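for ur thesis appendix - Contactin associated protein-like 5a. copy paste whatever u need, i formatted it the way the template wanted (i think)
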Amino acid sequence: QFLLPYVLLFSKDIVWHSESNNVLINVDRGLTGSLGGGGWSPESTDRSPWLQVDLQDRMEVTAVATQGRHGSTDWVSAYMLLYSDTGRMWKQYMLEDNRIVGNVNPDSVVHHKLSQSIRTRFLRFVPLEWSPSGRVGLRVAVYGCAYRSYVADFDGRSSLLYRFNQKSMSTVKDVISLRFKSRQAEGVLLHGEGQRGDYITLELHRGRLALHLNLDDSRVRSSSARMVVTLGSLLDDLHWHSVLIERFNKQVNFTLDRHTQHFRTKGDGDSLEVDYELSFGGIPLPGKPGTFIRRNFHGCMENLYYNGVNVIDLAKRRKPQIYSGNVTFSCSEPQLVAATFQSSSSSFLSLPAPAQILEGFSVRLQFRTWNPDGLLLSSPLISGQEPRYLILQISSGRLHLTHQTSAHGLKSLISSQRVNDGLWHSVSLNARGLQIIMTLDSEPASTIQLKSYLEPKDKHYFGGCTISQNDSSCLNPTMAFQGCVRLILVNNQPVDLLSVQQGHLGSYNQLQFDLCGIRDRCLYNFCEHGSRCSQTWSSFSCDCTGTGYSGATCHNSLYEASCEHYRLAGSTSGYFSIDLDGSGPLDPIQVYCNITGNKVWTVVRHNSSNAVRVRGSTLQKPYVGWFNYSASFEQLKALVSLSEHCEQRIAYHCRRSRLFNPWDGTPLSWWVDRRGEKRTYWGGIQPGVQQCSCGLEENCADMNYFCNCDADRVENDTGILSYKEHLPVREIVIGDTYRLGSEAMYVVGPLQCSGDKFLWNAVSFYQAASYLQFPALQVELSLHVSFYFKTASPSGVFVENMGIEDFIRVELSSPSTVTFSFNVGDGPVVLTLKSPVPLNDRQWHWVQAERNVKEACLQVDQLPLRIIETPPDRHLRLQLGSQLFVGGTATKQRGFLGCIRAFNMNGVNFDLEERAKVTPGVSSGCAGHCSSSAGLCHNRGKCIEKSSGYMCDCTNSAYGGPSCTEEVSMSFERGASVTYIFQEPFSVIQNRSAAVLSVPSQYSKTRDNVALSFQTTQSPAMLLTVNTLSQQYVAIILARNGSLQIWYQLHKEKRPDVFIPILSSLADGRLHRVQIHKQSLTCMLFFFQTGSDVLDDEVAHAGSKGFIGCFSSVQYNHVAPLKAALLNRGSSLVSIRGHLLESNCGALADLSTSVSRLEEVGKDNEHHEDDSQPDSAVIGGVVTAAVFSTLCVLAVMTRFLYQHRQAQRTARLQEKEHQRSLEAAYRAEFHLHNSMRDSMQEYYI
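the 3d part is after this line
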């Protein structure tokens, strides 16, 4: 590159030559001095200063350099660079933040190398920021080289035809390159086709460049084989754009400017066959088959090459293979001046109204915008006492013309087409006589009928109104217009926008002249996972509907990563969508999660689950069965990789159908793995052994063979395929069913996987200077990191990646604060989330941090999401280093002490444990899953440590499932009962002497808890009763009116007491829950005794009716009687009478949404007993008309408290408080919501 000579033009039209003026940077002095001192500074009255460079001819500019004004305090610290071929219709050299960094002092030189060279004649330097202690001061230099161009001008009716030497041209490789600039949004640039159906068309359609390509020789299949690939937008901007098409067989690279799309063509063909000719600029014969657009190209092309042939050069030299129809070889430049309205609140252009013509006026203009609302024209009209206006505005994307008067109201017209699509639209208004006629593009004209003639006042307002609120000469019912306007004509007189810019005509605010600054923010779509992008002038948004993702750019998956996550959420078996790579490129898939106990199977089914019979196959013409799974093989590969174990059952039933040739062992049948490779081992055998499971177990039907079917009789070989790298089965091939009586039948089961290798992939950092180091991922535009941590340390860095200036960091900055900080080039941004409770509590906490081009967010556990939006037109790309640090920093300061697990970034799971094996100060695993994650197991379930994770022992819980949260329910028919005999801790149960039983136990300060749920429509009904040999009892019943009553008699000589916590009926078919919590100083032993003679008549009547309905999750201290009845029917402790069925009434209640009718009751119920006899709380086992015998019932019920589940926690409900704290910890651990049982009524007694 060379320093280019130029002529300077300042914003006040003063011309200088670079060879003789003092604004040229002095190269000979090392870019540090000046020729004679000085430099350029604009006049203080110049509203829009700029420095323009004329290179005298089109050059290829590769770099620019700036310097401040010599001997002063003046310099430019940031500037915008514009370029143009003609000195009109400027285009901005685009950077992420629309500005180039300049100088910080007057003498140093700052070079800026252009990321992509500019081919132009004119450059314009527009100062944006300058010296805080001085003013604008500038010296410039431009670097580049000469540029040679072959140009052709197409007028919309012309074309170039390149004719082949032979009848047709068939190619397997093509390279086509050209540059173009277009005056219109439609037009064919290139077209060629063959008689057998091949074609290629490059066209502009709605300002976008589309490549249509078909290599299929069959016209019948052409519709399915044709490819349409679209690039670019707003390409009718009268600026040059570069196109490159490279094809080899089916592989195509399609490049527009700097952006390339790679794709493969469809169909069977590899070659492109074109007959006779290629046409450029249009299709010369209208109606030819295979065409996609009818309008020819209107604009200029240059440097047009087809497979190395310079087509324009051949046309200029009038070579016979080129036909040029009405094509000229210099590019005509339309003298158009556009203005950009920059602000949606303050931009406006005010023009004086010209002289009236024939009792009317006309306005015409062209505009383009993305905004759905904005004012185009507000014209105040001459009237009597009442103001009148003619308003042209965009409302909800459509054009509205309104004639507004106070006396006659509104009359309006609305266009049928939307105009906020970024394309140029032409609108004209004509007021003639008593009509206003509006014409939009090619739509039919619309008319407003008037009652009087329109006569404008002295001004027309375009785009908006003046800022003054007292100016009644302009009315704007909407926001100001943001967009581009050109070709304004008022009364058929063109408006000179350059005169406006120079202050000679009208007035304006927040306008840029001689350029259209519109950008397509959806062009290179930042919306992920197939979401839809929409935009306004200054921003874009993503519609995530139907994608399975959420967030500003649809980056975050709505689904869990595995069935294991759903299990930990308390879900039961069913179909779920899982997203194996989270925010990665793989789509979610639907699987069946078979959740049984602590084992979870992820089941992926295929299209051939039934048995298939095969006959008549040979090795030459074998039978091939394909399996189409409900997921792609990329998704299946990810599932297998994520899982700890995978398997697939394969069964081969045979009648004289062998698997291997008995003479030489040649496979006669086999299966194909997911990579398409042939596998000859069968179920129960590992790879490398050509056998079946019976061969390994040495129990084949014929010991001379290693498979049952090789015995050549009716047998079967069935087993499990469990080598993960080969699963799932893709095909099965059978080649030995051709003999007489030969037949085979196969069944291939679904793919089943268990375990999640990364959910509990954890490491412990025990040295502050230690960290794990990983290669950094590509996170320029989108970063998403999530992990769990637990620590006792007050601070520490979780993850960090540093660039030269840019960085990302997530850290625990204080015991209760997590911080996410980053720098994308605009200075550090810090998001802080403070927890109301300490986070260094040795419990697992979940962190998620995300940064994209729209926003950054931070979340910890279930705390509210912290979000900060990214300002528009700032740096977008994170420029980070090649190394990612987990658990510390490169400087080995502020290291993290504690555990991190399940670390995921942009859908990639990091194997922390493997890296920890070779890293000092870090160990694999993290001890104490249970101790640090209280609440993982609910309802008295016990957490048990495992090598990777934990399990819940629900033996002493009334609930089941992996987290002891699944209801255990039984349905009782009339006459059914369960009796449970408590053995421990009272060994005297075997001695039934009344004397022994009447002796107070040595146990003191006992605590008892009872909980049960019931659902019934029967009343009266017996829920619970407890009897002692001393004729004491406690009974919980539903009375005749369905109300809940608790009866207890502690002294046989006194009448029993009754407590009624609620008067309304509970026999309503809903699930109700009763909990009794009791603490007493004495314990009395008693034993169940049949007979109702000791019971009150009301209780006896309820007992005689028994119970018909459902009981669920019955708990008495550490014993779950109902669960024991289901699981231990042969036990001597459990006695079952009548017909009982396992039910799901408790689980069904979780799905309902009924609202509780109950109100909190918390009144003390004081009972006056004998002073020598303390109050006693009465509890018992359950269920139905028969009762559980118990050995110990304490003697007082001090308080009965009934309360709805949603009531506030009270100090008296310590047990409930503890349970809720466990549930909160559980949610924090797994970032999952447990379903609330809104339909259940609960009572705490």
